[in-house]
Amino acid sequence: MIGKILTSPTIYNITQTTQAQVGIETGLKAVGRPGFILLDGNIDSNTKKYSATKEFLYQLTCLVASIAVIVPVFKKNSFAIAKKLFKDEQILKAFKNSDEFNAFYKANSKDNRVPKLREIYVNKGLNVFSDEELQEHIHLAKGIIETTSIAGSILGLSIVAPMLSRPLIRPALKKLGLDKPQTDKKDEPAKLNVEA
């Protein structure tokens, strides 16, 4: 049953974009990391609650930041950026933006994309190329979109999320009454576990 789910065309299509992969990974981290913290028997309950809640809020911030950075900024502007860098590429002249290209990509099967792209080139008065060259144009456009999504993920997860999390997580933890981890033994320095 699990094999059928993992190999289904729906799951395959969902995981074909960087945005989906980052979202799935961050969602799993938002559930998994706090879950493992809560299952750890070597941590006192107050520290568990604090750490698990802080990790959940951080991963949630990461998810929001990656979606907010990837979708509106990088994905939407990927073709505009590429048009400045690759001025002579026909594929960038054939589509207005990445959404239009993605619609073309999803609407046509792998075997049908090259003939459909040739038709678009002819209708727009662009140069017509061999099948191999048209296939390379399709790969270039898909690569541009995914590369900018990866750049957005990196920026979102390594720069934007930490910047957002600092001012958001502390007040949230205070509201929940978990502003700092409380140990059962107050004013005693922590002892180093030399057996670990």
How do the helices and strands line up, and which of them pair or pack?
Elements: H1 2-6, H2 9-14, H3 18-39, H4 45-85, H5 90-94, H6 98-107, H7 113-123, H8 131-175
Can you describe what's shown?
There is one protein chain. 74% of the residues lie in helices and 0% in strands. It has eight helices and no strands. The protein has one domain (17-175). It is elongated and about 75 Å long. The protein is mostly helical and 196 residues long. The two termini are 40 Å apart.
Summarize the structure.
The protein has 196 residues and is an all-alpha fold.
Shape: elongated
How many E strands?
A: 0
Q: State the distance separating the first and last CA atoms.
A: 40 Å
Number of helices: 8
Radius of gyration in whole Å, from Cα? Answer: 24 Å
Bin the strand percentage. under 5%
Name a few traits of the molecule.
196 residues, mainly alpha, 74% helix, elongated
